[in-house]
Amino acid sequence: MNYIIGAFKPPCTISITFADGKTRKKASVKKDNGQTAMVPLFESKENIVGEVIIEPMHGKKVEHNGVKIELLGQIELYFDRGNFYDFTSLVRELDIPGDLYERKTYPFEFSTVEMPYESYNGINVRLRYILKVTINRNYVSNIVEYQEFCVRNYTPLPTINNSIKMEVGIEDCLHIEFEYSKSKYHLKDVIIGKIYFLLVRIKIKNMELEIRRRESTGSGPNTYVETETLAKFELMDGAPVRGESIPTRLFLSPYELTPTYRNINNKFSVKYYLNLVLVDEEDRRYFKQQEVTIYRLQEES
């Protein structure tokens, strides 16, 4: 029985390491098995440098038709699981056809790599970057090894960042104005605003501010939209009176937000909304929603 198991074992091991792997910042990514792993963190236009080590099992010869390493940026939609759409694909040939008898090290470098989209793991979609090493072989299956890494891209402070003003009204019953100081927020920002009660003829029991994330994937009839409420913040408990104003201050840093992603490679979008919820004494709920832009600001070193 052991001979049968041994027959299917690959005749060598492949390891992929990054040149600055020990000092480079790490980020957590979710693996296929649901567990998380820490992987190196890059941003667009960086050099990705390292080495591949192939080590044949003791006493085994590895006949091959060439060895290559690919850098792939891929999108996988979960309703089409297993099919990856490559938006970035670079390749380096590491070895010409031949035989391997002992451990061999191959350096590799991908210079100033364009990685326009961030790594993302959502409800119905994931975007990932991997290094893929393939040992091509005749008559038997190729030997393949993967190494994932994470990409985050940073945005400077926006030059224009207009405030948001909105009104909620129910004819002759309720008229509220609310104002937020800006419409674009970085991931560690604070949402500061004010709510004015101009007319109150219904009995408001409480009021909340929610942060919602809307992920849309696919297109046409295959569009899937998932909305998550990431945060709920009670603004008021009890009945407001006409002329009252309530300040709002909501810190974003405790929540697991991503930047806003708009139509990434025509495959998916991720948008964020501030949702104001009012509940009256009969438990009727009134909503007003406003999209805001979230971006990743370069962290201070």
Automatic annotation (TrEMBL):
Keywords: Cytoplasm, Golgi apparatus, Membrane, Protein transport, Transport. It comes from the Eukaryota. It is found in: Cytoplasm; Endosome membrane; Golgi apparatus, trans-Golgi network membrane; Prevacuolar compartment membrane. It is a peripheral membrane protein. GO terms for cellular component: endosome membrane; Golgi apparatus. One of its GO terms (biological process) is intracellular protein transport. InterPro entries: Arrestin-like_C (IPR014752), Vps26-related (IPR028934). Its main location: cytoplasm. Component of the retromer complex which consists of VPS29 (MAG1), VPS26 (VPS26A or VPS26B), VPS35 (VPS35A or VPS35B or VPS35C), VPS5/17 (SNX1 or SNX2A or SNX2B). Component of a retromer subcomplex consisting of VPS29 (MAG1), VPS26 (VPS26A or VPS26B), VPS35 (VPS35A or VPS35B or VPS35C). Belongs to the VPS26 family. Plays a role in vesicular protein sorting. Component of the membrane-associated retromer complex which is essential in endosome-to-Golgi retrograde transport. The VPS29-VPS26-VPS35 subcomplex may be involved in recycling of specific cargos from endosome to the plasma membrane. This is Vacuolar protein sorting-associated protein 26B. It comes from Canna indica (Indian-shot). The lineage of its organism: Eukaryota, Viridiplantae, Streptophyta, Embryophyta, Tracheophyta.
